[in-house]
Design a protein that fits this description.
With about 325 residues, this protein is of the alpha/beta class. The protein contains 13 helices and eleven strands. The chain starts with 12 loop residues before the first helix and ends in a 22-residue tail after the last helix.
Length: about 325
């Protein structure tokens, strides 16, 4: 497909293409190979667990398929990769990210949804900051990743305080750059998600101005290119089933999960455990009635002129686990 990508998604084109240069531009399955390319980010906990344990290598082998792994800094370039046919499957991205991809015309299928984790993202200020309430953000410079869940949390929090996005100075930053800018005092507030949130709380003198409780549900979605979803429902069925198991394992074994993830993330186990305690990791099918907040998110971004067009956020292809069995 072709698309002008005349949305904030287009702003990541150069960076995403640079990241993906080694991946090639044609779909692996279109070439008849047996590789499924999976994109993920640091916060993609369950996929990282499966990758680290070699689970998908074992479970997909009977289908003659092997995974290849590709890491991204955030969800926006990850879905850009799906849109450009450089990946088949995306690990979980925040609920905001598919909205931008849909506005850009991406052909994506929702594979699964993680139940809400509203406290797993927050607006941080320094401990000694004069900012005490959401209203105090007026005129301040706020850092966050564009199109991430943090972006919507900020918009919704500002609205709750009677402010609009135009009342703050946005600084679009990756989590790593946001942390550096926050610690240097280059931004007044930082909106970020776990595990970056937990790391900042444990390693720096910060204060939570607000998290998503009562403001933004923060559901995360696993997606696939629609072409791949139509061709290999069997592969997606295996991935879905293993994600469900991984989510149950992480919640039932918090210390073991933290010990597994700590060296992979480069974060101490106590911080990983704190971050994981705020995520539901409850993987479930994506169903129409569960997408209601997606429309609210889309409308909020459109109202702020951050989406190029109004979209029907719930009119999307949905994968049905077990349908291919």
């Amino acid at each position: 497909m072709t698309s002008s990508l005349s949305s904030p998604l287009a702003l990541t084109r150069r960076g995403a293409l640079g990241t993906l240069a080694a991946l090639g531009t044609a779909s692996a399955f279109a070439q008849g190979t047996s590789t499924v390319r999976i994109g993920y980010q640091k916060s993609s906990t369950l996929i990282v667990v499966l990758k680290t344990q070699g689970t998908l290598e074992r479970q997909l082998a009977p289908l003659g398929v092997k995974p290849s792994w590709h890491e991204f800094t955030s969800g926006l370039p990850l879905l850009e990769a799906l849109n450009l046919d450089n990946l088949e499957v995306s690990a979980d991205v925040a609920d905001t990210v598919p909205v931008f991809a849909q506005a850009a015309g991406a052909q994506l299928t929702f594979v699964a949804q993680e139940a809400p984790s509203p406290s797993a993202q927050a607006i941080l200020v320094r401990e000694d900051s004069p900012i005490k309430t959401l209203s105090d953000l007026k005129g301040k410079k706020v850092g966050f990743a564009k199109a991430a869940g943090a972006h919507y949390l900020l918009i919704a929090a500002l609205d709750k305080a009677g402010l609009s996005f135009k009342d703050i100075e946005p600084a679009y930053l990756t989590p790593a750059d946001g942390r550096a800018a926050f610690e240097k005092g280059a931004i007044d507030a930082w909106v970020v998600w776990d595990p970056f949130l937990a790391a900042a709380q444990r390693q720096a003198k910060v204060r939570v101005l607000a998290d998503g409780t009562g403001i933004a549900s923060y559901q995360r979605y696993y997606l696939a290119s629609t072409k791949f979803a139509n061709a290999r429902a069997d592969v997606l069925g295996v991935i879905y089933a293993e994600l469900v198991k991984a989510g149950q394992w992480v919640k039932a074994n918090p210390k073991d999960a933290a010990a597994l993830l700590a060296p992979v993330w480069g974060i101490d186990a106590a911080t990983v455990e704190q971050a994981n305690s705020r995520r539901s990791y409850a993987v479930r099918p994506a169903v129409p009635q569960g997408l209601a907040e997606q429309q609210k998110i889309a409308d909020a971004f459109f109202a702020e002129k951050l989406l190029p067009r109004k979209i029907n956020a719930v009119d999307v292809p949905l994968f049905k686990p077990g349908a291919a069995a």
